[in-house]
Every structure is written in C-alpha cells, then in structure tokens.
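This entry is passed on directly below:
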Amino acid sequence: MDAMVALPPLNALRAFEASARHLNFRLAAQELGVTQGAVAQQVRGLEARLGTPLFDRLPRGLRLTEAGRRFHAPLRRAFRLIEEAVEDLSGQRQITLSVTPSFASKWLVPRLGDFTARHPDVSVQVDARERLADFQTDGVDIAVRQGRAPFGDGLVAEPLFPTEFVVVGSPDLAAQVTSAQDLLAHVLLSDSHGLWPLFLERAGVQGRPRMMNFSQTSLAIDAAVAGQGFALANAPLVAAELMAGRLVQPLAQVLLDDLGFHIVTPRKPRQPDLVALMREWLRAQA
C-alpha cells in the first residue's frame, strides 16, 4: 500500500482557501478570527511548501495565479465535504448565501434574525463580496445579485426588488431641495453603478454636478446619512433609514432602470430543500 502524501497544515489550507475567496488577507483574517499577518504568514509558508506562488500581491488585494486557481477549486470542494459531514452528524444543516456587501449591510443582516428564529436547525453562512459567486467551486447555494439577467448558463434568476432608485439625503440637506435642479448646489454621492448622469438627464437638470464616488452603495448611503450630500439608491436599501428619519426623499422623481436585485440559483441546486426555504423567505421579506 502506497504511503499517504504528507499534507500541508490544515490552518495553512484554511488561510489560503479563505484568502482565495475574498482575494484579500484582511477579510480572510476577519472570517477566521486571526490577524492579517497570521494569514499572510500561513499562505507564504504554504507557497514555500508547494514550491509555487499562489497569489499575485497587488496594491489593492490579491489575484490568484494559475496554480492558485487550480489549487483552490478542489480545495474548496474538499472543505465543503468536511462541512457537510459535520452537518450530517450534528443534525445542523447549513446554507451558504452569496450577496454584495451593500445588500448584506443595508437589507439582509437586519432581517436575518427572522430566518434563524423560524429555522433554528439551519445555519446560514453569508458570503458578502462584489465578485460573482461560482456555484461550482465556492460552495454557494443561493445568491442575491444586482444587475441585468441572465447571469450565466445553468442559472435561474428571478426578480427580488423593483428597479426603482430614489434620491435621499439628510433631513437638513433635504429641506434645501425642492426641485432636481437644486441638487447642483450639493455634492452627489455616486456608487459603482454611476446612475446620477442618467437621473439628471431624465430630470432635465442643466449644469455640471459635483460628485463624490464610492466603490459600494452602502458607503454612499452612509455618506448621505452623515450629511455629505445626496445618494441615488435602490429604494429597498434605504427603506430603514427613511422610516427612522435618518434620510429623507426630497423629490418625487425616481429612476427606473433594469439594475434590479435578483435571486440566483443553479438549475440543479446541491441542496434543493434548503434553497427553496431561503428563496421563499427572501420573497416574503421583499
């Protein structure tokens, strides 16, 4: 019988797998509950042991090398098999939900307690990142994504939210705006979707706006709450702030676009019962 190949330390494999999913040592460290330096050191040790680099280190994050991509896919499947074995013995089922960071912080997380209260036997893992989930390699069961369907071959997408974008600002700033033209006196807070020019054009606004740009919608919303300007956000993402009075919608005009949120699942999900359970809960919440 052939001797078993000596495997790298489990902590090093976990550090690499989490870093490969997030493409960021800091986010991987937060997930694993260790320091960023510890994750980077574990990955360096793994690269030295394997004799090949697994990441390209970039100024703003990481990029998998070809060897890293080949290594990550089967490693992710292996960790998922371990998770399923533990779930099977413990009686605790787990579903992994992939969402964008803005959707997670502004809509999902405040509501997630309702799901866990209704289904105490189901553990929910939230994978919040901008990159689209790979249902084959990331261990993701169901996703919520903003964009234009379809999202890929073999995937089913159904609308979750209507595609209505509203102008919101702090109460003090909102009191200064009675028409869309008044927005030019203030800073417009833009996210990666960049819909402000389209809104201003359709509203007939003349002039050049002052812009502040953010990589995530949640940051633009937070800046609006802080009184730094006006954000143009998907209505459900600011519903809580509007209800609490932290934000005000000063204009009746809205922007209708096809950048809505969709529930995305594989045509043949790995855990069909859990996927159906989460899908129905998301629909009810929306």
In short: The chain has three domains: 10-87, 92-161+260-285, 164-256. The radius of gyration is 22 Å. The domain at 164-256 is CATH 3.40.190.10 (D-Maltodextrin-Binding Protein; domain 2).
